[in-house]
Structure formats: C-alpha cells, structure tokens
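Re: heme C structure - here you go.
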Amino acid sequence: MQRFSRSALALGVAALALVAARQESLEARGGAAGPYGLRDMEIPVPPDNPLSPGRITLGEQLFFDKRLSKTKAMSCETCHVPEKGWTDGLAFSPKFDGSLNTRHTPTLYGVAYAPELYWDGRAKGLEAQIVAAWKGQMGADPDAIAKELDGIRGYRAAFEREMGGPPTGDRIVKALASFVRTIHAADTPFDRMEKEPRQAKSDAVQGFKVFSETARCTLCHLPPLYSDTLFHNVGIGFEKETPDLGRGKFLADAAARAGQPAPAEAETAKGAFKTPSLRGVAVTGPYFHDGRAATLEESVDLMVKGGIPNPHLDEKLKPATLTAAERRKLLAFLESLTPEGKPYTRPRLP
Ligand code: HEC
Ligand code: HEC
C-alpha cells in the first residue's frame, strides 16, 4: 500500500494515482492513512485543506523556496533540514533579523499528529502554526509574497490547478501544511523488526522492553508515535534562575488575554513542554527544548535518572536504574527508530 511520505513523490504517476485512490476513500472519513509503522494512526486533515498529491508537491516547492522570506536568503529548510531529521543541528537558530530563537528547533517528523504545535502548544493546528513561523522566523508579509509568486508562471498555474485560485497567503500556508503533514520517520528498522519473531533477541527489540517495562518511558513516549502529544515537566531548564515556564506560561497568558482567571493547569504545567516524538531521534540532536544535550546518550541518561528535580516534576517520570547492558539495548532501540539515511532530492522550483 502506498504511503504519504516524501518517497511517494519520487515514485511517479502510477504511485501518485494510488495515493489519490487511497486518499479518496479516506477523505470521506476526513483523514489520511498513516505510513508504515504508523498505519493505525490516521493522519488528521482539516476539511478545508484536503491532502492531494498536487498540493503536497506544491507545498514541497514552497518549503524549499527562499523567495518566501523577507530577506530572500532563507526558507523553511534553513532550520528544518531533511538530512538532519528536519532540524538544523543548532541549539538555537537565528531568525531572519539575526535574533536568536529562545527554544530549540524541533523535528518535523510526525507533526501531522500533534493537535497543538510548538513546544508549549500555543498554535492549534498546522495551518495556524505555519503562518506564525512564516512571519516570525522568515519575516514574511504574506500578501506581498503571494503577489510575487503570482508573477512566476509555474507557481501561478500550480496554484490555479491545485488550490482553486491564484497565490494568496492562505493558499500558500495550506499548501505548506499539506507537505509538512507527509513528513514522517516511518518504515524504520524497528518497525520492520518489531513483528519479526526472529528479531526477538535483538538488542533493539530487547531495548524496547527496557524502554516500556523497565524504565516506563512509554507513559509519555507512547508508541507508535513515541509521543503522547501532551505536555509534561521533566525539569529541563528548571534549574535556571528564570526558567522558561513553557505550557504553564502559555495557559496563564491565554487566560489573561481573555480576561479570565488562570486555570489550575497553568500552575501544574509550569515548566511543561510537549513530549517529542522519538522517531528519527538518532539524527535530531541537540536535544530538549533548550538544546542542552549534544548526544542521544546524554539525553537518555538524563531521562533515565528521572529528569531534573523541581516542585512541578511530572509524577509519571521516575528514576530507573539500568545495567550497562540494558542501557546499551535501550540506545539500540532508539537508534532503530530512525529511518536509514537516504539523500533527499530537493524539488525543482518554478
Ligand atoms: C529560523 C529558523 C526557523 C525557520 C526558518 C522555520 N522554523 Fe519552524 N520552528 C523553528 C523553531 C525554533 C520552532 C520551535 C518554536 C517554539 O516551540 O517556540 C519551530 C517549530 C516548527 C513547527 C512545530 C513543531 C512541533 O513539534 O510543534 C513546525 C510544524 C514548523 N516549525 C514548520 C516550519 C515551516 C513550515 C517553516 C517555513 C514556513 C518553518 N518552520 C520555518 C525554527 C524555524
Ligand atoms: C513524564 C513524561 C515523560 C517520561 C516518562 C519520559 N519522557 Fe522523555 N521527554 C518528555 C518531555 C516532555 C521531553 C521534552 C522536555 C524538554 O525539552 O523540556 C522529553 C524529551 C526526551 C528526549 C529528547 C528528545 C528530543 O528530541 O529533544 C529523549 C531522548 C527522551 N525524552 C527519552 C526518554 C526516555 C529514554 C525515557 C524513559 C527513561 C523518557 N524519555 C521518559 C517526557 C517524558
């Protein structure tokens, strides 16, 4: 069965027809099929932005196109590099004006499944998040850029064909969201080994036991996405003098803006951040919302010892003691959740 992934685009017209056929039956239910390893998880798609191969292709071009930025020197790819698991290897990335982000660039793997985007979940849905990123990270004036794209014949035709009209800020965001929804770390070695009886004694499969049973990481890193898409305080940054209060601050600010008292969760969610999906984790370093851990080993050791103690620490996170062999297997499991590195073919731009 064809899947919605980057590789689907490379397979040519026949495959795309298959995608379309599969899509048609799913559209009736408002979703799209998850790729291999995530089959049971239907990709939620908003009714006003149905996925189609044409929209995905157009969105991919826009993602890699520097003409979408104010400076014409950056694209979404500047911070979300496919070969780096759609991150950029930096703790904090510079925005279009040179100022630094205060949180680490997360991977785009599996973001289609997160109802709330950003580390603190302040954006509801990918479309809302992408318009914010486009303006905030790239300094875009959507109307002005839509007008520029309207002057490029290839884009104009593609927007008319796929989006039902000429480029507008809204249509650009929708096409980008369609593409981003197809970015998955699927068909990983672990996905293939998991159901294979002969692999039961492999380090990776044994490592999953350590992950789920011994260290109980699955309480938050829920398979098959290896994230519950919820927010937890594991203590990262809480040792700082003025910690980033993450989800708690967002909830308090949102209530204040609405003229309402802060909900109880604004207090308990102080220092809480979204559980990252661990698919692709071998290549998405540095780790955590402040990019503090340079290596996977370092980040895993920090989680295994129970995070960083603080008054808001999530009670699901308990320290575990692992033998050297268990630690090695746990790391082998996490490595095997990363797809084999294949060079990514950038799209040709109109
Ligand atoms: C200058 C670097 C930079 C650029 C350019 C950039 N991003 Fe990001 N992106 C970030 C950072 C940093 C975050 C996390 C911010 C936060 O959580 O507060 C982020 C978050 C995201 C997320 C949310 C991920 C999650 O797990 O919640 C998505 C999706 C995303 N970006 C897509 C895009 C798209 C699409 C573009 C192009 C329109 C783009 N980004 C351009 C740095 C960048
Ligand atoms: C209480 C929920 C919870 C539990 C239990 C938990 N994690 Fe996490 N994990 C998180 C959250 C939330 C973050 C992001 C924290 C931050 O950056 O502030 C995270 C981050 C990570 C990261 C860094 C990923 C990245 O892309 O930055 C790794 C690796 C990780 N966890 C592995 C584990 C392992 C291994 C275990 C079991 C020993 C575990 N976690 C248990 C919630 C949890």
